[in-house]
Specification:
By secondary structure, the protein is mainly beta. 2% of the residues lie in helices and 57% in strands. The strands form three sheets. Strands 1, 2, 7, 8, 9, 10, 11, 12, 13, 14, 15, 16 and 17 form a 13-stranded antiparallel beta sheet that branches. Strands 3-6 form a two-stranded antiparallel ribbon. The protein is globular.
Length: 256
């Protein structure tokens, strides 16, 4: 539930609260035993050990878990900044601020053997700005959307690290993330280049997503996109995909 306040024609303030189940479960190992062939033991929930085609060993552990109760309160503020730069098109940037405080958030320890509770703070600030740059595009604006996020696990334990189903391995109490999306359009909005990126400061991990979309008609859309992953610390978000860079070509057809 939320309560929205219109402070004036330019600013909107909302007060938010939530009580319910988390979207993702928190998981623990159900049994530390492993067998070479699941056989009848597999039906009893005992994990199995297999081998991939390249000879790499694969472990199939069994997990147990549940969807914890989420209890959170928050506030958001959205409004135009009183900044107008004629040389950049004269459009006011839109500022967004968000804060959420979650009570007794449930994590698993790094070994996923027990649950740990801690209050959790999430904050974010973002700007949506339409900028004119005639040197690169005389007809359309550039959309510039930087964001910065700060999160803190308030009661970080001294004897273990944490693991979260959505965020993965959490070795630190404080987390800082920056994202940026740049886009514009050409040929009357039919050709749309875009570059999106994010950087996780604590994990020293990055993601870059360039793409070019061509809207041929109301039915046909073509996209060339790529993804480049980077990470220096093992077993943290994005590091797992460090060798999964790709380039893709997509064709989309809308019926009707």
């Amino acid at each position: 539930e939320f309560q929205q306040f219109q402070l004036d024609s330019r600013w909107i303030l909302t007060l938010n609260g939530f009580y319910g189940l988390e979207n993702s479960p928190q998981l623990l190992f159900a049994d530390p035993m492993f067998v070479l062939d699941p056989g009848p033991l597999g039906a009893l929930g005992v994990p199995a050990l297999g081998t991939a085609s390249d000879g790499t060993s694969i472990v199939y552990p069994i997990y147990t878990g549940n969807h914890p109760i989420q209890k959170s309160v928050g506030v958001t503020w959205t409004g135009d900044l009183p900044i107008v730069i004629s040389a950049l098109g004269g459009v006011n940037p839109l500022l967004r601020l968000e804060v959420r405080y979650q009570l007794d958030k449930v994590f698993a320890d790094a070994d996923q053997m027990r649950y740990i509770k801690s209050d959790d703070l999430d904050t974010g600030i973002g700007i949506d700005w339409k900028v004119k740059w005639n040197l690169l595009n005389e007809r359309a604006y550039f959309s510039v959307m930087p964001q910065f996020f700060y999160s803190r696990i308030m009661d970080f334990p001294d004897d273990t690290l944490l693991n979260d189903t959505d965020d993965g391995f959490l070795p630190d109490q404080d987390y800082y993330t920056a994202t940026l999306v740049l886009s514009t359009s050409y040929i009357n909005g039919r050709l749309i280049p875009q570059v999106a990126g994010s950087y996780l400061f604590v994990n020293e991990a990055s993601l870059i997503l360039p793409s070019i979309t061509y809207v041929m008609s109301n039915s046909w859309t073509y996209t060339i996109e790529a993804a480049f992953f980077g990470g220096n610390k093992p077993n943290v978000p994005l590091w797992l995909f460090r060798k999964n860079d790709y380039i893709a070509f997509k064709v989309k057809y809308n019926w009707g």
